Hints:
Helices cover 76% and strands 0% of the residues. It is mainly alpha-helical. The longest helix has 34 residues, at 71-104. The N and C termini lie far apart (51 Å). The mean pLDDT is 85.
Amino acid sequence: xxxxxxxxxxxxxxxxxxxxxxxxxxxxxxxxxxxxxxxxxxxxxxxxxxxxxxxxxxxxxxxxxxxxxxxxxxxxxxxxxxxxxxxxxxxxxxxxxxxxxxxxxxxxxxxxx
Length: 113
């Protein structure tokens, strides 16, 4: 698979993730300033999480010697694949949680005594 296609798939998975996250899990009121700030923080936090979870294994796997390839060559190949795998896991997790909330009626709330 070409790297451009993998990057496009990663971008589409990120969009699906944001759609699921903000449609089913965000309590967002567009008129309240605090809700807008929380929405922006959630968006930035999600992007940081995706980058860290995708880049960390990509860098670690690129350090493994393989067919006498340089680090820069390996990282160009391994990083998009790691991002795609991480995004598949994240989207599947959020999608299943949304399914449980909408179809099964299981609400995810913090536990308080």
